[in-house]
Amino acid sequence: MDKQTFITVVAAAAILALAACSGSPKAGAIETKAGAETKKEPPTPPDPVAAQTAFYEMYKPARIWAPDLLPLSLTSNELPSLKNEGGKAAMWTAVFVSPSRREARTYFYSVVNEGESVSKGVTARGAQHWSGPTPKSRPFQTTGFLVD
Fold first, then answer.
1. Which of 142, 62, 68, 135 minimizes the C-alpha distance to 102?
2. DSSP state of 145
3. What spatial distance separates the first Cα and last Cα of the chain, rounded to whole Å?
4. Contacts for 73-81: CB closer than 8 Å, 24+ residues apart
């Protein structure tokens, strides 16, 4: 047997031996590029979020509506499926106002879907007339919003 044939036979035998040793992945496992298996974890339920996190999620689309917007209020809401704890909530409501448009718009942020009335993510309601600040209802600057 010549050297080239011998190398081809050895290589073929090595490939067959490696293929025979590897088994199929177990059910519920994910194979990584290195060939190592990891257990697939069930999805964890979402956690409530702090006010500042929810605020900036709502602030982004609100700036598209009115670049001069100011926040008027930010409140947490209770959802039956997720308990509020430690200043964090599953749902938040923000009201933004636009001095140039003289309008107010309400935004909601939720970390879960809750029936037909609450959708995960940011939801906006239609604009309403806003007559300006009052002693009981004044917009605040976002620079003052440093702590959750």
1. 68
2. -
3. 78
4. 73/137, 76/51, 77/108, 79/110, 79/112, 79/114, 79/118, 80/114, 81/112, 81/114
Q: Enter the tokens of residue 49.
A: 């979020």
The three-state (H, E, C) secondary structure of 57-126, written as one string: HHHHHHHHHCCCCEEEEEEEECECCECCECCEECEEEEEEEECCCCEEEEEEEECCCECCCECCEEEECC
Task: Tell me, yes or no, if the pTM score tops 0.85.
Answer: no
Q: Using one digit for the tens of pLDDT, what is the confidence trace for 23-50?
A: 555 555 555 565 556 677 777 778 899 9
